[in-house]
Amino acid sequence: MPHFSSAVNIGDLRECAKRRLPRAIFDFFDGGAEDEIALRDNRAAYERVRLAPRVLRDVSKIDMSCEILGGPSRLPLVIAPTGGIGIAWPGADVAIARAAAAYGVPYTLSTTATATIEAVAEANGAGRRWFQLYILYDRAFTDKLVERAWAAGYEALVVTVDLPVGGKRERDSYNRFVQPFRPRAWQILEAFTKPDWALRILANGGLPTLENLRGFDNKKSDTLVSISSAVGQNLDSAFDYTGLKRLRDLWKGKLLVKGVARADDAERIVQLGADGIWISNHGGRQLDAARATLDSLPEIAAAVGAKVPVLLDGGVRRGSDMIKARALGAQAVCAGRPTLYGASAGGEAGALRALAILADELHRNMQLCGTPTIADIDRGLIAG
What we know:
The protein is of the alpha/beta class. The protein has a single domain (4-381), classed as TIM Barrel. Helices cover 43% and strands 12% of the residues. It contains 15 helices and 12 strands. Strands 3-12-11-10-9-6-5-4 form an 8-stranded parallel sheet. It has a two-stranded antiparallel sheet with strand order 1-2. The two termini are 38 Å apart.
């Protein structure tokens, strides 16, 4: 297995991360819910789509830049939120935010980040940054997060609506990756087999905390529960369209709703004033029977794509995935695991390697498809 710097594809970076991290931590990031059907199908959906390339086009110069949510981006790509990632590499949130700014793509910070809203804003500098919001049962605390994001220059609020309860992520249960975390003897022994990970964590003062939830009155269970269940029990499962309208009135910037899977929901959300729809099944980590996000894209894009941008995440691993999603109606794809694998393997340099791989693949595939600009990518490229 190569060093992350010589990784050929995102799969290589995944293997680098897997080799470096303790199993419980790698599985926490890599895994999905229950039988992981949705996790696999998100990827399989891209593999089912075939392209009909155009030939005899001048592709000597390729322009991969585009507009995303009213602003410029070097690629049709947004870094999706990934929570708790400082347990893989100290400062991983900041590392990925810096990489996104350097590469000129929007970056989304998770509510459950291991760096503060303000620290990431400073690291991201002049880059485009969005804040992903979980709706906590404490509305006042949630409102404070919104206020902090606006004050720190986040241009968009990404409200996550597909997590009224935490998914059943069975890898975490098998690995005893639970709260409160009480490492077993085998977990302590395994840490010694991952010296680079262990030494970096120890040098940073131990496992990090969820910085933006400091001061939050976390509901504690009397029993050991998975990380996802622990997060889920602190969310507001009563959050509905009325609550979304309230947030729309509170937030002054762009507002996207993440976790949409149906056209009728998308239409109603747009009517409430959302500036964009983010199709997601939480990376296959919530409802395991959920449809692949790429399969949901055409009908949602047909319903609201003429009014607002439509984005989607889940299963993005290749540059050609950006072409397929654009051709089917998305303004851009959102990807979390690629840069997370990269950062887990090599910090900021690893995240940059992930972006470089995806950009190189997109450039090559645009040439092979006969599409010199992103605007040239349309439904006509889809075979069948």
